[in-house]
Structure formats: structure tokens, C-alpha cells
Write a structure and sequence with these properties.
About 25% of the residues lie in helices and about 15% in strands. It is of the alpha+beta class and about 325 residues long.
Length: about 325
């Protein structure tokens, strides 16, 4: 990786030296070798697959998604929609209405290419989670995704669940793509501590937590911000707010690439990852979708016609 721009995280400069930042290894050469793919996932905690998807199909999903976002008056008038050139001051991180009733996006993520890959990789019929995470990153402070592992959000089913991070457009370095921390999935201390937490578990024996949760359940409503802040949770999902401190603590480099439309980055539930700042004037859009063997247990929070997600009925009490 040469002549890199200055990477930033929440407007703070990141170390781009070879000891701190490195390239993702492509695994397109092993697409027809299931055993090799499993060895690389076990060793690296990810599979980077440039060109796995059909570029025209990705473009169709991008266009349909941008059309929905344009209804929110985000983009500069008079500019091509595909440029996704933002009005000044627009701030967003996700747009969960975009995947709803969006056939081109559904076909991309849950149609032939992606499912065929997972059926080959996992060796059997595949069950995706029904919830699609849609990321829309603007060039504003606090839009970068903080370092975390997915297990704390979706760990109530099999751990043999994999995330596909799919860029819906070319993402040069300046636009702030995904970073994965080298060998972080092998850190047993990380898995034994942070990796055992659950964002929907609360301390029912502290304060008024049990009463607050009970009232919200009875009313079938979400917790207010004040109620959330008054409860002690197992975790807020974030491992750290500082990618540099994480690398110093755990070792390894942050790994990334200049992503192209049709690329997919697949990683395990225990692979620590984050994103860096979008330093352009264009909206960066991508999706997270998850896949597992249909025969293995599945996290009930993320399945069904209207997945409950992290709603009030997903909360579990524990004695702290």
C-alpha cells in the first residue's frame, strides 16, 4: 500500500505506517477450493473477494437505494444521482428504510451469486438473517463505525454466522471503507470477555432496571434515551472508541483496500472491525448481511417478516 491518503477516524489522524496499516488479502484465487477458503477464514478471520458479484446487479441495487435516499432531500440538485453528491451539513450513518421493498437490493444480497457462494463455502442449504443493515456514511464527525465484533449483537444463535460487507459503489480510500484488525479473531482473551457480552442483556438487580423494562414491555414501546442511560447494560456493543488504542492493546495491523463495486468482504463474528472517515462530499453506501447453515440455531432477533431486533422484547435480565 503506497501513497496512501491520510486516514482519519472521527477527524483524528490514523497511523498509516506499514506497521499499523496493511492490505487485505484477496481470496478470489481460492474460490473453487472450499478447504483453502476455510483455512484462510480460520487464519485471517475474513475473506476478501474482489469481483464476486455482478457489477450490473450491484449498480441496479445502488440506483434503487439512491432513489429512496433522494426522497430525503440529501443530494445537491442538478447533479447526477449516481454521484450521490451531498448537500452541506447532511449527517447520517444508516438508513434502515432503504432495504424495505427494494427488489434490486434483495436480489443482490439474497440471490444467486451470494447464496451460491455461501452454499459452497458452508457445505449445505443456507439461511440468511432477514434483517438487512444499510449503511449511509456522510463526511461528518462521528459517522465512522467504532471498533466492535458482531457476536455481541447477534450471538444467540450459531457462532458459525458470517457477515458480508457489500459496498454499493466504488469506495476509494478517501471515502472511508471497512478496516479489520489483523488476527483479532484469534484473541482468546477478547473472546472470553467482550465476546461473551450481549447488547440486550441488562443488570436486573441494579436500580430500577427490572421495573423500567417491565413497564416498557407492558406498553410494547421502546425505551427512552433517559431509561436506556439509567440501566446498566452488559455492553453498548462498542469495544473501543479509539482504533489506535485497540491496535496498541491487541496487536496486529488494521487491514483495508480500495473497494470496487462488485467486491465483498466476508468475516467472522469474532473479527474486530470498524470504518474510517468519509473525507469526500459523496455519500458512501454499503450493506451488512448475514448468512449461516439453515440447520444451525439462529438468533430470533433478526428473523421474520418484521424482525424484533434490539427492541424491548429482546432484553434479558441477569444478576450482576
Amino acid at each position: 500500500m503506497t501513497t496512501l491518503p491520510q486516514f482519519r477516524f472521527n477527524e483524528q489522524a490514523l497511523d498509516a505506517s506499514p506497521a499499523a496499516l496493511g492490505p487485505l488479502r484477496s481470496s478470489t484465487d481460492a474460490l473453487d477450493d472450499r478447504g483453502e477458503l476455510h483455512q484462510r477464514m480460520a487464519l485471517d478471520g475474513y475473506l476478501f473477494l474482489p469481483g464476486l458479484l455482478d457489477r450490473d446487479q450491484v449498480q441496479a441495487a445502488r440506483t434503487s437505494s439512491l432513489e429512496r435516499l433522494a426522497e430525503q432531500d440529501l443530494f445537491l440538485p442538478g447533479q447526477p444521482l449516481d454521484e450521490a453528491l451531498l448537500k452541506p451539513g447532511v449527517h447520517m450513518r444508516s438508513a434502515q428504510s432503504v432495504p424495505l421493498d427494494n427488489p434490486p437490493l434483495f436480489d443482490l444480497l439474497y440471490g444467486s451469486h451470494m447464496i451460491e457462494f455461501y452454499e459452497s463455502f458452508l457445505g449445505g442449504p443456507v439461511r440468511p438473517l432477514d434483517y438487512t443493515w444499510f449503511r449511509a456514511k456522510t463526511p461528518t464527525q462521528d459517522s465512522a463505525t467504532k471498533p466492535h465484533c458482531d457476536i455481541v449483537y447477534m450471538g444467540r444463535g450459531t457462532e458459525n454466522l458470517y457477515t458480508s460487507w457489500t459496498p454499493l459503489g466504488d469506495i476509494p480510500y478517501e471515502m472511508g471503507g471497512l478496516l479489520v484488525l489483523e488476527k483479532s479473531h484469534l484473541n482468546e482473551e477478547l473472546k472470553r470477555t467482550y465476546g461473551q457480552t450481549d447488547v440486550d442483556v441488562y443488570c436486573e438487580n441494579e436500580g430500577d432496571a427490572a421495573e423500567i423494562i417491565g413497564r416498557a414491555r407492558a406498553a410494547n414501546r421502546a425505551l427512552t434515551r433517559e431509561e436506556m442511560d439509567s440501566i446498566r447494560w452488559s455492553t453498548d456493543g462498542v469495544y473501543s472508541h479509539d482504533p489506535t488504542a485497540v491496535r496498541t492493546e491487541l496487536g496486529g495491523r488494521w487491514l483495508t483496500a480500495e473497494f470496487q463495486m462488485s467486491d465483498v468482504l466476508i468475516f467472522s463474528m469474532h473479527t474486530l472491525h470498524c470504518s474510517h472517515d468519509n473525507q469526500t462530499r459523496h455519500l458512501r453506501i454499503s450493506t451488512d448481511s448475514r448468512y449461516q447453515l439453515a440447520s444451525e440455531p439462529i438468533d430470533p432477533r433478526w428473523i421474520g417478516d418484521d424482525p424484533p431486533g434490539n427492541g424491548i422484547h429482546a432484553k434479558r435480565g441477569t444478576i450482576c
